[in-house]
Amino acid sequence: MQALFWLLDTALSLYVWALIISAILSLLLAFNVLDSRNRFVWTVADFFYRVTEPALRPIRKRLPNLGGVDLSPLVLIIALQALRILLATSIAPALGVYRF
Predict the structure, then answer these.
(1) Residues 95/4, Cβ–Cβ less than 8 Å
(2) Is the dihedral of CA 24, 29, 32, 35 positive or negative?
(3) Is the pLDDT of residue 42 over 70?
(4) Are 26 and 45 contacting, i.e. CB atoms less than 8 angstroms apart?
(5) N or C: which end of the chain has fewer CB within 10 A?
(6) What residue intervals traverse the membrane (predicted)?
């Protein structure tokens, strides 16, 4: 049981990092710091887009249009961090897993 909670916590943490990298990468592409015609840059950007977009799309539909500012990664990161805290403080101790 402890390994399952550790795996879930690690997966959530990695997904938060993927969201951060995706947001930074999209900013660098938008300001032409990175060249999207470069095959490696395009491949990395496409990978992070495909990983994060399914979770971000429903949040984007519900958030108001702020004129080019996308707050959906921030909203999802806050929700995932809240889930990690809930897992560590409530669910895991209730099931007898104290440290993971």
Answers:
(1) no
(2) positive
(3) yes
(4) yes
(5) N
(6) 12-34, 74-98
Q: What is the pLDDT of residues 10-20, one digit of tens each?
A: 999 999 999 99
Q: How far apart are CA 60 and CA 92, in angstroms?
A: 31
- Whole-model pTM: value is 0.89
* DSSP annotation string for the chain: -HHHHHHHHHHHHHHHHHHHHHHHHHHHHHTTSS-TTSHHHHHHHHHHHHHHHHHHHHHHHHSPP-SS---HHHHHHHHHHHHHHHIIIIIHHHTT----
Confidence class of residue 40 from pLDDT cuts 50, 70 and 90? very high
- Give the residue with greater pLDDT, 90 vs 25: 25
Structure tokens at 3: 């390994």
